[in-house]
Design a protein that fits this description.
Helix content: 25-40%
Structural class: alpha/beta
Radius of gyration: 17 Å
Number of strands: 10
Shape: globular
Strand order of the largest sheet: 6-7-8-3-9-10
Number of helices: 7
């Protein structure tokens, strides 16, 4: 699916909560409401232990809630079978992780192609799509390079290209600058800003106030509660 049409609700949380069994039970995410529209750039911030990882796993369809609804592109994910959730995740969500998760002995293009194995993209179209995604993030000159010959910023941009290649409706970024120095962090965040300008819907989960300040909108999670922090910039 192509990235979101402006003002269409890409993501809706309605009383979404997650409690882990005890004893005693731990309410990691208290019932929460959140709507993210097409083309929005949202940062979710909070200290360690606040519930960021729990929320990330729910948003990424890596875990199921114990309360409420999560609608992704209008699909009520709580009622989907595991195979349907996997398909929705592969086609509608692009992940960017702190640790890159690149295969060291594969080229940049081959790493990007791996993302297309899960949504049944035709084999013959994968290479061209991977190269297009790498050009989109400014890595046309590094298509055949392996990760161990790249800077941290270049490796993270390969990860961004991998997240983009299936044209998801949501880019979900978990501490995307956490393993980068300041120069490479700036490069990656500049790239995310360009993608937002192109219309992509982006959620960045971060503990870094500087990264959060680049978003349109900030939501804080503290002790398992989501708190709207206001609109910034743009």
């Amino acid at each position: 699916m192509m990235y979101g049409e402006q003002r269409r609700a890409v993501l809706q949380l309605v009383g979404l909560g997650r409690t882990f069994p005890g004893p005693p039970p731990i309410e990691a995410l208290h019932p929460s409401d959140l709507t993210v529209h097409g083309g929005e750039y949202l940062a979710i911030t909070g200290p360690s232990g606040s519930g960021k990882s729990t929320l990330l796993h729910l948003l990424g369809l890596l875990d199921r809630p114990t309360a409420g609804q999560y609608l992704l592109d209008g699909n009520d994910t709580a009622h989907l079978r595991e195979r349907e959730r996997s398909s929705l995740r592969a086609n509608n969500i692009g992940f960017v992780f702190q640790s890159f998760h690149l295969m060291p002995h594969r080229s940049a293009a081959e790493n990007v192609e791996l993302a297309m194995l899960y949504n049944r993209s035709p084999r013959g179209s994968r290479r061209a799509a991977a190269e297009d995604a790498l050009r989109q993030v400014g890595l046309a000159h590094r298509i055949d390079a392996r990760p161990n010959t790249m800077s941290g910023g270049e490796r993270q941009r390969v990860a961004v290209a991998r997240a983009l290649v299936n044209r998801p409706s949501l880019l979900l970024c978990d501490e995307p600058t956490g393993n980068l120095d300041s120069a490479n962090s700036h490069s990656v965040m500049e790239q995310l800003g360009k993608l937002h300008a192109e219309g992509y819907t982006i959620i960045v989960i971060t503990h870094d106030p500087g990264v959060a300040a680049l978003a349109q909108r900030v939501v804080e999670i503290r002790d398992g509660y989501l708190i709207e922090a206001g609109a910034l910039g743009f």
